[in-house]
Design brief:
TIM Barrel, magnesium, single chain, 240 residues, alpha/beta, lyase, iron-sulfur, EC 4.3.99.3
Length: 240
């Protein structure tokens, strides 16, 4: 696409791209999707299920990431009929300036764009305009671990921008019951809505075990419940 070939469009640092598959989390669970997973993150959560996007103590960035042009990613998407495109990471908003021409072009041709973000980086107005939905996952103290303080994992201004956009849902990963009061605290403090909770887990058994008590808590607190469909179907396989 000629409008994307300008030298000002820098390549995107990519971890992987895959699909068609199914969106496994949040309001679009079960819908066919293409995934574009970006490399690099501004957090280092021990509970992260994609450490190969940022943890260079365990993974080699030369093997786990590559640079693709906006044109290459656009042509990959354009060659498929799937309408939902999920851009995830890592933390995609670290590269939002590079993503913008891709997101804008795909949105103009009628694709639906979901961006998964940890909610610590302010999205630009131009990005907000083109994105269909932000799936915002602020990190709880349990998930982020002791080495990441609240000032790093919670950005009130970014959460305010995302909330006021009218295009955000707030999705929290839950490990234990104690996490729920922390979620409720952030819900009240920042006016987050709608809230979705989902169990942490990289195996079907763990996900289902935690959902048995998380479902009742979600109902009691007037929240929505998300499974991890991809985990239930394919376990911890990458690229699914």
């Amino acid at each position: 696409m000629s409008t994307l070939t300008s030298p000002r469009f820098r390549p995107i640092l990519l971890a992987e791209r895959f699909g068609p598959t199914l969106q496994g989390e949040g309001p679009s669970t079960g819908q066919q999707a293409l995934f574009i997973r970006l490399s690099r993150c501004n957090l280092s959560c021990p509970g992260c299920d994609t450490p190969y996007t940022w943890d260079w103590t365990r993974f080699d960035p030369r093997q786990e990431s590559t640079q693709l042009s906006v044109d290459e990613l656009y042509e990959w998407v354009a060659g498929q009929t799937v309408r939902l495109i999920v851009i995830t990471g890592g933390e995609p908003l670290l590269q939002q300036d590079r993503l913008l021409p891709l997101v804008h072009s795909l949105a103009n041709e009628g694709r639906r764009i979901e961006i998964e973000t940890n909610g610590t980086i302010n999205p630009s107005p131009d990005l907000i305009e083109s994105v269909t939905q932000f799936n915002v996952s602020p990190k709880t103290s349990r998930f982020a671990g002791a080495n990441i303080d609240e000032n790093r994992r919670i950005n009130p201004h970014a959460l305010e921008i995302l909330s006021s956009s009218g295009k955000a849902i707030f999705k929290f990963v839950i490990t234990r019951r104690e996490d729920l009061d922390e979620v409720a605290h952030y819900e009240r403090l920042f006016g987050l809505a709608p809230v979705w909770v989902m169990p942490e887990g990289t195996s079907a058994r763990t996900v289902l075990d935690r959902m048995t008590w998380l479902a009742d808590e979600a109902i009691r607190r007037s929240w929505n419940l998300s499974t991890r469909l991809h985990t239930l179907v394919w376990g911890d396989q990458r690229g699914r």
